[in-house]
Design goal:
This protein is mainly α and 204 residues long. It has helices at residues 5-16, 22-38, 42-53, 63-68, 72-87, 102-111, 113-122, 124-137, 141-150, 160-165, and strands at residues 90-91, 192-193. The protein has one domain (5-193). The radius of gyration is 18 Å and the shape is globular. The chain starts with a helix and ends in an 11-residue tail after the last strand. Residues 156-204 are annotated as: Disordered.
Length: 204
């Protein structure tokens, strides 16, 4: 499941031609991706996903990596994000995925549209850099990033330099934040409503 970079950019340009109709732009991009995915055997599709996302940091879907890298500061960002979910009555079940994993963030945005959109806007620079990287890789997954970015206010940046300028780096975290628990979601599991009143005797 691979297109050349020029073809992926052409698809993205076509999606952007819908101008002020972000919902239509997003829908068109998702439909094109779904059609491409359906045309491939499952094993080929799985291999393609691994080759795109699991071998290169420059295409990682973990959003705080783009702002914090592998630093102590990232632990603070992950803890803050987990608290943000809990403040809305949602908590991820025990699992492998971190709270900054893009599919988890998108799920949160579906459950809490206002704050979820605000969260995506905060990471707009990372989203746009992922979009550029996927387009260069010639993968149809670039269409999904086109769809996400199309739903956010304002035009997408025309260059990587403009996208990098959108990234806001938080203050460095202290050393006590190293080694924080890795909260996350198991693939396919929804964010769970937090218990309104934990029962006594069962442990926090």
């Amino acid at each position: 499941m691979r297109k050349d970079a020029a073809a992926v950019r052409k698809d993205g340009d076509a999606a952007r031609k819908d101008g002020g109709r972000p919902a239509l732009r997003a829908l068109r991009a998702v439909a094109e991706f779904a059609a491409e995915l359906e045309s491939r055997p499952l094993l080929r599709a799985q291999e393609h996903y691994v080759s795109v996302f699991d071998t290169r940091n420059r295409r990682t879907l973990y959003l705080t990596w783009w702002t914090d890298g592998d630093t102590r500061r990232r632990g603070s960002s992950l803890a803050t994000l987990k608290q943000r979910y809990r403040a809305r009555g949602l908590t991820p079940p025990e699992g492998a995925e971190l709270p900054d994993y893009l599919p988890v963030v998108l799920e949160y945005a579906a459950l809490e549209p206002d704050d979820g959109t605000a969260l995506l806007i905060e990471h707009r620079g990372a989203l746009e850099l992922i979009r550029f990287a996927l387009a260069d890789a010639g993968t149809p997954y670039a269409l999904l990033l086109e769809a996400v970015c199309a739903t956010l206010p304002g035009p997408s940046p025309a260059s990587r330099e403009q996208a990098r300028a959108m990234i806001r780096r938080p203050p460095a975290a202290g050393p006590e934040l190293v080694g924080l628990e890795a909260p996350g979601l198991l693939p396919g599991h929804p964010l769970l409503p937090s218990d309104p009143a934990p029962q006594r005797g069962r442990g926090a």
